Structures
1.
Amino acid sequence: MSAIPPIPLGTLPPQALGVRTHCPYCAFQCGILMGEDLGGGLPRITGDPNFPVNNGQLCIKGWTAATLLDHPRRVTSPQLRERGEWRDASWEEALDVVADKVLAIRTKHGANANGVFGSGALTNEKAYLLGKFARVALGTANIDYNGRFCMSSAAAASNRAFGIDRGLPFPVADIAHAEVILLVGSNSADTLPPIMQWFDKQKASGGRLIVADPRRTPTARGADLYLQLTPGTDLALANGLLYVAIEEKLTDPRYIADRTTGFDNVRGVALQYHPARVERLTGIAEPHLRQAARWLASARSAMILTGRGTEQHSKGVDSVHAWINLALALGKVGAPHSGFGTLTGQGNGQGGREHGQKADQLPGYQLIEVDAHREKVAKVWGVEPATLPRKGKSAYELLDSCGSEVRSLFVMGSNVAVASPHLSRVEQRLKALELLVVCDAFHNETSAHAHVFLPTFQWAEEDGTMTNLEGRVIRRRVVARPPLGPRGDIGILHELAARLGCGEKFAFRTSESVFNELRRATAGAPADYSGISYAKIETNDGVCWPCPAEDHPGTPRMFGDRFHHADGRAKFFPVEHRAAGEEPDAEFPLFFTTGRYKEHYNSGAQTRAVGKLQSAQPVPRLELHPRLARRHRVASGSRVVVESRRAKVEFVAEVTADIRPDTLFAPFHWGGRDAANLLTGGALDPTSRMPEFKLAAVRIAGVRA
Ligand code: SF4
């Protein structure tokens, strides 16, 4: 690949035809080439055939990503709410209002009364700077981000089992070489369509795919073995597979002895998961259970890959542990073309969780409660370690405390009024805030409750780095000129910090200068970026962390020789199936679960504004099985009211035999009265604080033809 010179922040490249950059949406971070439309319209987008992750393929979201750059609904002036209405304001006035209110709240209620909510869509530089802004400029412990709702269970289990958390510890291209893959709770064909090229290659080479999911999704339809498990029983399924592996002597005793600790305890627990018990819990028949275990164990190379379906539960961490236990017991983690991985969702879901937006973390996956980590980061930031706050509230708890302990919330790049569970409660809390500031390019369901709106640059108008689902740090480049009015997030944080008395610590002129400080802050940390530079990314197809030195090539594959615990071994964790926060009962007899459409991204704030995407999927549809539909006299197109203990939502029905007869499904990309998350609850995983998005107890409360 040819080297491309770095582009200074806020300027267009001299030759804007064929600039290499990346799709703004999901964690696959497809390489794209953007070029000028010679008619003077939007930049053209094509897939980058030389980027080794997507090989030129894009999904419909990527193809249409430029649409938002000159969208008529884009906000181009700061706005203040007055008597319930927005009015335009100057940047000076809007930033003064924010700073004055934040200072007043701090004086009256203490530093922790100002909260910050970040995003897995922010670049590494912004995520890093937002964490520093919260701890240094605001002095608050209360910063968290929407990645808590996405990757926190997988991250917690991976950190505990392997000593480090990187979604895929191997390149995505390795998928093509695995003999057997077990994909759990991921509808990759819709959420990451270009990844299917690697599954197709795997299949063409004679490989086998096993999919576990309550819905027969487009991904599951391509499986050699499909396990349609009961929602919330993934952990029992994994333990059942381990039972079979132990009983049939399919485990790898040498690997277990040489590379792991703690198997005996796990063995004892797994042996309580006889296939008959597992069938009762999961609905998966014993022959299928044995078939899956045998395929995985007998393959020379095998992978277990998880998605949000198995992780977004109040037992999400334990469920991921169960899958890791199985992969370790079979000796597959770190073996060639094998391993355990999680498929990260948001665009910078990986980098966003590494650089200090989480309530308990400092940059590089360092921990805010560990003194040595505090001292190191404080030194880079030029502050006393004692001035750094301690661990703050997790995302849902932060939102839930709005209007009481937390009086102001500064939201950057997140639409919490769609993407959070128990939405009626969250909206009530947002309304109770004294100050809600939203930084975004468009108004959304969250800014409907805001007092200040700060318009920002979009993805193609700023420089920065993202870290994809493989831990590959890549460059996002300036390709389009922003309209007059919006500003970059880095500049906004600097202006606010200056008003809060510490502008010199945020006086970065370029994204690269922020990245260079991030490199110093992460030196020696688990997610070590110190050896990665913008120049190095230019001459490679990205660089995978950890990369601890300038002359280090990066680490595309991990765990080949050792894990990241001090003894170099992976840890087994015994985990038991338990009930969900809310199980179906006589009153609310059905499972409700949520997911995505291929046309929309997360809260839909961006994709619902793209005409082609919105016309393809204009409303959320409720999937239900024909048997259930007959019982309630529902036909496709009927209006069905679904009720949980928290709310009622009316959906358009889609009758399909692809879903279990005891389960309803709806996508969560819409807000207002269409919000699926009005139905979901606030049960949290005790370790990761992940809400239980994938399971609520509901009933059908009404049907209209
Ligand atoms: Fe690729 Fe994801 Fe963008 Fe689709 S949304 S083009 S899969 S990065």
2.
Amino acid sequence: MNDIIIGIDLGTTNSEVAIVESGKVTVIADAGKKILPSFVGIDDNGEILVGETACNQYLIYPERTVKSIKRLMGQDAQVAMAGQAYTPQEISAVILKRLKAIAENYAGRTIGKAVITVPAYFSDAQRQATHEAGQIAGLEVVRMINEPTAAALVYGTGPDEAKRMLVYDLGGGTFDVSVVGVQAGVVEVLSSHGDNHLGGDDFDQQIVDYILEHLKQQGIDITGHSKAMARVTRAAEKAKLVLSDEPFAQIEEEYLLEHQGTPIHLTLELARSAYEDMIADYINATLDAAHIALKGAKLTASDIDEIILVGGSTRTPCIRERLFDEFGFEPHGEVDPDLCVAMGAAMQAAMINGQDIGTVLVDVTPYTYGTSALGYLDGMPYPYQFIPIIHKNSVLPVHKSEAFMTHQDGQRQVDVRIYQGEDPDALNNIEIGEFMIEGLLDVPAGNIITLALDLDLNGILHVSAREKASGKEKTITINNAISRFAAEELADAKQRIDGLFGENADGEEGFASESAAAAEARQLIKKAESLFETVSSEDKEDMVGLIETIVAALEVGDDTGLREPVERLNDIIYYLES
Ligand code: AMP
């Protein structure tokens, strides 16, 4: 039996371990969780904590907990944990040791070899430190590969394909963007850029600031209360995750603390649009970095064939939207962006081990679904702007919702239309459903209607429109939202091609496949009929008689029988016209 080689993504915020078995890549779960927070700590009893438990104690006992150690790799530094000093390699080794144990527990045997991923920008010293961390953890690091390379391996290419990919990796604390070239399964990083201090944590901090400001307006300052701050920080991240799927998030924390003898409960709503404004500068910075990376590879946006999303923060919908606007196509996100790098590491490990690997298959929607709303098209106001809600390549099942506002005072109903397609003009997409939500509150314009789309693994799309203020709701179900369109597209194509062969939609032969003589006869009948109003009744009678004979011959396809009546009818017409 070959030695097992595991693939490890040793991340700043989270780490994962994966393995290839019988050609299939598996990210190994520990107690049901595939993601191990990159936190190390010492508990009350002096025991070592790794992952979730260490993360949980971080805000309360920061002096006993270490996070984001990756940032210090390769530096001649030490960190303090419960009064002891540790090198970055040692702390990283604790995480690696835990991942090794998770994999051993899963495989039921000892594991001694690993492929570990590192950021493309890592220097020799940083790579060397990672290698040492592996050794300390009892792992032979058989190879270190760049994170974007690992991600690109997962998405792969056919043997004869050459592609240029942009790997956009936005995690909790770091942002990296790389341009990679893939040819015949060989991945090469052409250029990389990024920001070591930009990520989902910054987004959380924006929400924390928003909450603190809200409390401050009530005369409450919680910044000196570590437990309350820990709860607010956690609530902020939770709200952020909700806003990736919903247009509003409710932030609620009961008994946050006591203020002048009264318990303080936090109740606050955050709209996605307000949140997107808070993080807009960060997203702009990532796009600027993407352009710098492109420049570094001497390429422009139009040279990129695919965009790969990596890192949990890429689930933020406006990131996808901005990339779509910038590059003109949907980025890939079908492989879990948190697990993609570890999966690539395991694939590389399997290749080194001579194992076969199948392609990574996931169920995704091949289409974008959305609705139409009053908006803009080419800079002009337009009533049918297409608003995508579920994007192409989303992993199934998927639930997404968006908020819309009525635009007239006292508007009591809204016509909801659902489209499949990607054109900014909804009318150029395929309408797949329409319904009215009626009996809305008699209120000024701006009444919020939330539209939710749920697409399940069977391609059934559930649509619901809900008036936020009253809870009034109307739902419809669209069966075969996916396959129906594949079938419809096929039917359209068939019709088009059949048409070229002169067949009608039912495959029956139409006029075009008739003989030239028959086609000429039909033309002649038309011409004769157009003269009826101007001819004598005698001539008309003759013409009608001849037409009847011609039609009889046409019906049985008797081209020879056409010849004489056609000739005679032609003579009459010639005579009448001259
Ligand atoms: P990573 O370092 O790649 O594991 O990414 C972790 C970051 O992704 C954290 O900041 C998470 O809060 C963030 N994240 C995870 N899931 C989501 C989501 N659904 N929407 C937005 N951010 C997310």
